[in-house]
Specification:
With 128 residues, this protein is mainly α. It has five helices and no strands.
Length: 128
């Protein structure tokens, strides 16, 4: 015999697993930018890497908290990442470093776009 659960938290709709994955990828991106910033700090100061790190952590937090602005920002930056990645590959040519460096970033950004545009994620963010 099961006992009915009257906890208001249990009645809340479940968060799609894609949202957790997107937040994890954004958080990991922020960590990568931060590590690159710290690694290059002794050579040169790169405010761009620090800005990208902060932006990625902010987007990860917004995605985790189901904020519409984070969804839009993540989508825009992922589209920008795919387009610039393809342009860089087109103008620099395909080499070993581009296949192991640039191609995975393009693929991850493309997967993020697909997940952000999935029906469950759009419903969770109330985007029609």
């Amino acid at each position: 015999m099961t006992v009915p659960n009257n906890d208001p938290k249990s009645k809340r709709s479940s968060v799609p697993s894609e949202i957790k994955i997107i937040a994890g990828i954004e958080g990991f991106s922020g960590l990568v930018y931060l590590v690159n910033f710290l690694a290059l700090l002794s050579v040169t100061f790169s405010p761009t890497l620090m800005l990208l790190s902060f932006l990625s952590f902010t987007i990860a937090y917004g995605i985790w908290r189901i904020k519409k602005w984070a969804w839009f920002l993540s989508l825009i930056l992922s589209i920008f990442g795919v387009v610039t990645g393809i342009l860089v590959l087109a103008f620099t040519g395909i080499s070993e470093s581009s296949i192991f460096g640039r191609a995975p970033m393009i693929i991850i950004d493309f997967i993020l776009i697909l997940m952000l545009l999935s029906k469950d994620v759009r419903i969770a963010f109330k985007i029609q």
